[in-house]
Amino acid sequence: MVKIAGSAAPSPRPSSTDEVAPSSPAPAAPERGTPSVVNAGAAPEPTRVEPNPEAGRAARVAHSAQSAQLAQQLHAGHTHAGPTAHAHAEGFAPAGQSVGGPGPARPAASTFATREAGVAALDRDFGVRVRDGNPAFSPEELSRVHESYSRMSSPDREALRGLDLRREHTASAAIQQEAGGHGTLAGLYSPNADARPGTGERVQPASITLYDSAFPSGPQGRQSSIHTITHEAGHAVEGRRRDDATAALNGTIERRNAAVPVLNDANDANNAAVGTFNRAAREAGRNPGTTAAERSQSRQVASTQNAVNRANEAVGTARTPEALAAARTRQDTAVAARDAALGRMSATHPGRAATEEMVRASDNWGSAARARGEANVPLTQLSAEQSAARANVGRFENSAHVSNELSDFQRSTRTARGHEQPISDYGATGPAEDYAESYALYRRDPAFMQEHYPRTFQWFQRQHP
Ligand SMILES: [Zn+2]
């Protein structure tokens, strides 16, 4: 609950014969996010509310670091030093081994006469949306993508659903550099977890971009493409759920940050209204009347006004719609009782004008308190949503922002007793590339993997049957 700074709720300063205003909780530091309501006797010291924009900033920084880390890990920087048709095989095949060969004939379902047919099939079968780029995908390229995704299990294909599939000649220099200079980029998985300020809407879905070198020609060309395409899909299998959860978290951060200044503005207006009220209440307290009847009338107004004060505070600091509605009902009731007491005040009471001024200031404060309450309720809800979204991200990753999927892969196949080496030089550049390379081989040539990397094969068979 709210702790009120000072010793009493705002009230007319009691004269020596007046009732003392109800006591309040012991002085305490104002809770963050709540106003400091000044008691009638003290100088007004409105405190600006600071509803913790720091929380959002910290999360964004963490997120940026996380994004950079992901982006660096998730680039398939396949080196094509020699003829592109062979470069890939050199990348993952143990010396003296020929992996895959030309492969089986392409499945009929993955054969397209037109680009449009391929676009429609990828959308229909995998929920993948092909985006035009420079160049556009050819029917042959879409066929290679479709065959690659067809080799994935049903649960794994969920990681593809909603992805944008992009095609460009080459990656930008900035992306090349971010990938660490491992040669010409063939593909790129982008988590795209950023959200728009204000609405919190995700800026764009996660995407996979395929470059020219993902589509070599020659007898090994199709197998090379399938490896690259499945490698990028492997990044989605490894991180997509975490990336989506992160995007949702960023959305809650942006929406909460948009609500913070609204509350701060309402709080400033509320505190200014409290200050005006306190000054008017002190003025009214200086004219309690001279006759017993007049002093009794002043006491009744002061007493009912104190109830209005408490209701205003409850309205301004409500945290739920239900609490706000209840406080507003209480506010209406208290104002009616106070107005009735004011109506019983004699027209010739020497403090009448000052009391009416105090009542006007109280009503202004009441309106400002309502505005503050209406800004406070959504912020409270957004803070709760943000906490839940953060907890949801935590279901998919560890404290170092490594996905549970990846850390289990490493623990089970790379650091345990009987561990195995990455299947390719590119896989040796980092754990996420190791995972993606392994996933690609697992889907493209499981028999080869079972023979040469039995532990890694068994892990994938267990986790991704
Ligand atoms: Zn990669």
What does this structure look like?
This protein is mainly α and 465 residues long. The protein has a domain at 402-465. The chain has helices at residues 53-73, 84-92, 115-126, 139-150, 154-157, 173-178, 221-285, 292-316, 321-343, 352-394, 404-413, 431-444, 446-452, 454-463, and strands spanning 75-76, 129-130, 164-167, 187-190, 207-210. The chain has a 5-stranded mixed beta sheet with strand order 1-4-5-3-2. Helix 1 runs antiparallel to helix 7 (221-285), helix 8 (292-316) packs parallel to helix 10 (352-394) and helix 13 (446-452) crosses helix 14 (454-463). It is elongated. It binds zinc ion (ZN). Zinc ion (ZN) is lined by residues 74-76, 231, 235, 433, 436.
Class of secondary structure makeup: mainly alpha
What integer value in Å does the Rg equal?
A: 34 Å
The strand count comes to 5
Q: Count the DSSP helices.
A: 14
Q: Cofactors and ligands present?
A: zinc ion
Gap between N and C termini, in Å? Answer: 53 Å
- Can you write the helix and strand succession as a string? HEHHEHHEHEEHHHHHHHH
Quick recap of the structure?
The protein is mostly helical and 465 residues long.
Describe how the helices and strands are arranged.
Layout lengths: L52 H21 L1 E2 L7 H9 L22 H12 L2 E2 L8 H12 L3 H4 L6 E4 L5 H6 L8 E4 L16 E4 L10 H65 L6 H25 L4 H23 L8 H43 L9 H10 L17 H14 L1 H7 L1 H10 L2
Parallel strand pairs: 2-3, 3-5
Antiparallel strand pairs: 1-4, 4-5
Helix pairs in contact: 1-7, 3-4, 4-7, 7-10, 7-12, 8-9, 8-10, 9-10, 12-13, 13-14
Features:
binds zinc ion, elongated, 465 residues, five-stranded mixed beta sheet, single chain, mainly alpha, 14 helices
